[in-house]
Structure formats: C-alpha cells, structure tokens
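Summary for the steering committee. The consortium agreed at its last meeting that each partner would contribute one worked example illustrating the joint modelling workflow. Our contribution is presented below. We chose a case with several input lines so that the handling of multiple components could be demonstrated. No manual editing was applied between input and output; the record is shown as generated.
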Amino acid sequence: MKLYTPRPRELAQEHIKAYILEHDLKPHDRLPAEREMCAMWGFNRCTLRSAIAGMIASGQLYAVQGSGTRVAPRFRRTLQDLQGFTEYAADCGFRAETRLLSFSVTECDKHLSRRFRRCLGEKLYRISRLRMLNETPVLIETSYIPVELAPGLEEHDLVRGSLFAVLEDVYGLALDHGEETTSITSATEEEAAHLGIEPGTPVFWIVSRTDTPDGTTVEYCRTVGRADVVEMASVLRWTEGEIE
Amino acid sequence: MSEITYKSPLYIQLREVIRSKIEEGEYPPGTAIPSENQLAEMYGINRLSVRSAVAALEYEGLLKSVQGKGVFVTGPKLERDLETLGGYRQTMRQRARTPSTRVLIKAARQAGPYYARILQIDPTDHIWFIRRVDYADGEPVGLEDIYIPMSVLPNLDEIDINLFSIFDAYDWAGIRPSVGYQTLRIACLDVATAKLIGLSEEQAVLEFSCVTHDADGKVIEFSRNYVRNDKAKFSVHYTNQ
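What follows is the complete predicted structure of the assembly.
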C-alpha cells in the first residue's frame, strides 16, 4: 500500500479550510493572526504564508492591509430551481439590488427564432439587468420574452419586482420547466465595466430557457456571472439504468 | 451583454458571423475556416480584429488552430448533465464516447482536519487519495482528485482502477451511491497542473466539487474535478415544484 504525504503547504491549507468550517466563519470574517495559526498547527511562518497566498490567488481568502486575512464572499446559485434572483437573495439574507441596464423591443434573429420556435422578425422584449448582492455586482442577466405573451411588460417594475412573478401573476403564464447550460467565456469590455472586473477575465456563461407546461418558451436568458464571487450548486441523483 | 449591432466592435461582429456559420453548417466540423488574410479582405477589416475574433472562439472551444495548417472547426462538445450521479465512465458511455483514465496517484493518507470534516470521520482515520486524468476518445478532458474513507472501500488497493471504475468497486462492496451535492466554480490551474490535461498555459477550467452519500446518508466520497471548458458543456433541467 502506497502512502501519500501531503506537502506542508497543502496540509496548511487543509487546516485553514477546516478552521473556517469548524468555526463557521462567514464571508469577510477574519482568520486568526499568522503567529497564532502557526502555533496552533505547528507550521513555520513561511509555509503558512505560502498557503495563504495560494488561497488568496484561488479566491478563497482576501487580505486587508493591516487587518489580516479574511474569508472571501461567495454567492451560491442553485441550478435546479426556478427561483428568481430576488427570492434567492431574500432567502439567504443578502441585500439585493437590481439595475436596469436596458429595456428594448427587438426582433427574432435567426438564433432567437430557433430558440423560441417563432418566425424571423417576431417581436421580443429584451431586458438587461445588473444584479448586485451586498453592493457587489455579480450577474448580468439578459432576458428575451415574446411581446405576444406579455404585452405591456414595460409598464411593470422589473427592478424591485421579480420578472417571473410578473409573468405568472399578471400574464397568467405557468412557468413550469426549463433547461440551463453552463460554461466559461471571457468578459467583454462592457460586461467587465458593469461587473467591476478586467476585460477578458473568465466568467460564467449561462444560457437558460423556461417553458410553460405545453412547451411554449416564455423566457430565454443569457447570464454572465463573476467567477470570483459566484458558485453554482446542484444535486445529483442516482438513476437506475439510464440510457440515452 | 449588449445586443450586437453595426456599432459593436468589429471583432465582436466577426465573431458572431463565424459562430453563426459554424452553427449553420457552412463551416462543418473538421474543416478549416478562411485564413486571417482572407477574412480580413472579405470583410474589409484589419487582421488584428480577425485575430481577436478567432481567439475568442478558440477560447470557447469552437475553433482550434493548428500551427502551420490553419484554424479548424471543432466537433460538438461532450454534453454532461448536472443532475445524474454516475461515474465518469458511465457518463461517457451514455454519450457514446470511449472513456479512459490514467491514474497518477492512488495512495493512502491520513484524513487530516479538512477531509475528516467533509467525510465525517476522525482526522487520524485513513483515506484513499486518487488523482487521475480523464480522457474521452483519447483526448484529455479533465483531472479528478478523489477522497474515499478507507473504511468504505478497504480493499481498493487490490482493484485496478485503470480497468474498473470506482462505481464498480462500490457495487462489489454492496454500496449504493445515492445522492451527490455538487458545487461548480471557475478555477485557474497552474501551468504544471494545466499540462496534465493538455493545456499549454494557465487557463480557466470548470471546478466541480461533489460530496457523495450512500442510500443511508453516509458520506462515501469527496471529489474535485477540473474539466476543460473547451471539451465539455454542462446542462441541467429544472421544474417548478
């Protein structure tokens, strides 16, 4: 049987991660002083610093000049429910804020006409919103909704209110199921400016579609999410003998 | 995300032109797109704009440039879902790809404070640590670190995990993996790690962490999986409950 011995730096990181879990440290909570951590776990200062530097580089911690090392914020988004941003933020106790970047009427181009199974040129609302949590910009969501399904949508408050709630309550659209695909892209200059990051930074690129029970597509949405503060969660279940 | 209009930067407009030609099948997988010079001439734009457009599509995995030969359209990405628990091989077989893995490390270690907490065991208990590279049709797609309490699979040492999957090992031990709680982040691999999965430089990859429980709710495995963005895409279905 082979034995694996973690390198001191790796082990120091494991101790720090365990400490955060054990003491239930929240985003922005402070880690103990370096000296204290060294004494607690028996590492030398150099190893501990290198461990912390690695965790800062990977976005798990951040350092404040003169006030130690803190836990970096993470906003977790669940991939498998239809919960909108507004409800999600309220559930987690975040201060959510939405800015309307643009609201316009556009026409189905080739790509959108295929997504909606509608003819070229059919009118779509295009709503682009910047989502912020605790003053940090996290997502840019650009939604497309057929004008035919929600005429007069521009009269509703989509900044303080939830788009899905308006679609369900005002227009009687039953949002039933959908699909979401996640990958990485790099932020364009405009996206980067809104999100407060450097252009070209890797970001989440999420494309989703939400349908009514009869399969009418109500919303098609493209989301750009900041990779340093957002993580996605999903629950995997074992299915017996699933063959595609 | 702003809409692309005639006012958008030229490289963004060209990127969309090429993307739609790939989607429409005008540039089929495996073929070369027109050269930088040809594209620049075709649209009357400078080569720098062409280069930026091509670089962006390469990054997304739609194009691949081959030194001295040109820029080629890649095939469709592997599609993996984010809701079915199943080993790597099982997922790949369902997608009609030939899976293989190369084990880099398979060894025992002390759980230590962190893995003990996640695996709900004692820090002095022993665990298996497996690091392997996953391939699809011979091409590296990801790197996996897997942590399993030794008490869950005491004889893993005798099982050749290059030939059998870890899910096979669970099956033989009468263990039923039942649910996995997964989180997805974007991680930047250092050069040495990136090389292991065929990337030449520091590059953003998708990082999946998953805690797997058996039918009784006991934690049987923790895994961290780094997957190349240009080789796979991930989707999930949801319903209103």
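The first strand of chain B starts at residue 63 and ends at 66. Chain B has a mean pLDDT of 84.
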